[in-house]
Amino acid sequence: MWFEQYTANTSNVEIYYEAVGSGSGIQQFLAQEVNFANTDVPLTDEEIAQFPSERCSVLQIPITGSAIVFAYNLEGINQLQLSREAYCGIVTGEITHWNDPILIANNPNVGLPNLPITFVHRSDNSGTTFIFTTHLAQACSNWTAKVGRTIDWVVGDAVPGNLGVTAKIKQTEGAIGYIGFAYAEQGFLPMASLKNKAGFFIKPSPNAAERAIDDFPKTDALVGSFPDPDEVDAYPIIGLTYLLLYENYPDQATKAALQDLVQWMLQEEGRAIADAMGYTPLSRELTDQVIARVDGLESSSKGYR
């Protein structure tokens, strides 16, 4: 939506964007096959080291935030609460049915059915999985798998992409899975309220995500994470989307277009689009930091490629 609207607004610039997932986007960016990329997980030091530093360096900037939600499919049930014991048990396979005593204790007046739980997770290289497992490693004492973009899950059905997970949940009674808030909202899927670190059940929303993003670490790197926010009203599973840029572009026109794109994404019209899509705009302070860094992009024959 962002890139379509920007292209419609700008007569001399066309943006071609393909939603291939964070893993593929990073690979294409590091191979210098694209002018920029989006990712839900920042580059690792090892990935940055793959880039030929004699040409130019890599800049990664936050653009927006999002809640990662548990979307589910239970007929007639539009309100669901999951304690940490509950959702940790679901993802590790320790809770297998919707009428498990732990789930009933979380939802005493809901009437949960005697139905098997189908946990739906990603099969591909996924920034959403990275954000999700980063939280699980903090919140779940029984989480023994790694933190990463790809996981050897012990339970559940694997499908590629946020859209794939959304479709699988909609098709499967008793299913529950993790996706970005915007995908659940656009797919008309109910989302569970999760118990946060402070002990409160919080319904996912852009406002609940904003409380965590307000505490973004103030560093020059502009990279941070929120594995388990402390705020009493913060939703517990939050991630950022980063834009990957080269510090130096081979031509002035490309550099200027990307600078203008970032300015537009972070100013009023772009922020309104993010909010309407279910994403969380950055704080004004962080926005100013990002724009200042992007204003420093250069163009010369030493640019990438």
Descriptive account of the structure:
The longest helix has 15 residues, at 252-266. The chain has helices spanning 2-9, 22-30, 45-50, 84-92, 101-106, 127-139, 161-171, 181-186, 206-213, 252-266, 268-276, 284-294, and strands spanning 37-39, 58-72, 81-82, 118-122, 157-159, 175-180, 193-195, 201-202, 238-246, 248-249, 298-299. The strands form 3 sheets. It has a 6-stranded mixed beta sheet. It has 305 residues and is an alpha/beta fold. The chain contains 12 helices and 11 strands. 36% of the residues lie in helices and 17% in strands. The model has no long low-confidence stretch (mean pLDDT 91).
Quickly name the level 1 CATH class of the largest domain. Answer: Alpha Beta
Total of helices: 12
Q: What is the correct CATH architecture of the largest domain?
A: 3-Layer(aba) Sandwich
Q: Sketch the major β-sheet.
A: 6 strands, mixed
Give the overall form. elongated
* CATH superfamily heading of the largest domain: Periplasmic binding protein-like II
Provide the gyration radius in Å: 20 Å
Secondary structure: number of strands: 11
Number of domains: 2
The overall pLDDT average reads 91
The neighbouring-strand order within the major sheet is 1-9-2-6-4-5
